[in-house]
Amino acid sequence: MAAYSEERRDESGKEMLHKTKVIQFLGRTTPIILQNDNGPCPLLAICNVLLLKNNLSLSPDITEVSQEKLLSLVAERLIDSNSNVNSKDAEYAQNQQQNIADAIDLLPRLATGIDVNIKFLRIHDFEFTPECAIFDLLDIPLYHGWIVDPQSCSDDARAFLAIAPRIVVAAIHRIKLSLQSFPASLLEPSQPPQPIDPLIGISLSRGSAPPTAISAAVHCIKLPHATATS
Hints:
By secondary structure, the protein is mainly α. Helices cover 39% and strands 8% of the residues. One of its GO terms (molecular function) is cysteine-type deubiquitinase activity.
């Protein structure tokens, strides 16, 4: 992993170091890696997940560790966890070796952050990218989420208003796909839909026919009112 040594330096030319902290996790003592500055750092996230899963070895006595060392540990884990391809055919083994090599080449990017394209169907849906493949090869699930601060600035409000319609469209598309396996007779109401409870989203009164699944889903998606101010 010598190729990383020239890249893991701070602005002063010193080797980038991260402090560690020893914690108790599920009855086991393990170190975790701490950030130097607030901001995205997938490398530290990956290392901490592997440490908590006991898939990465780091002595609790070490008080700090270099980024070069962390990159080396992750690269070793990539190779070790994907080396058992004896039961696979030659083509699979060759493709897997190439995937591992590509992932190792991308590891330095993890130190500063990566760009991913999310899909709105599920919290674990992403467009495939080489960076996302690193998480797959390490058997680390990746999720996306966003909690909007009610006191946030106008930029967050504008962003939410831009994203919310996409979430609704994606949800309706997913529901339509799931309804394709249902008989049409089950999807039509036997009588007009009952009034929608604004707090629940659909009528739950006994004996009354619910609205169609698509209508119910649309009504169940309540979008908070966000006001964009300049």
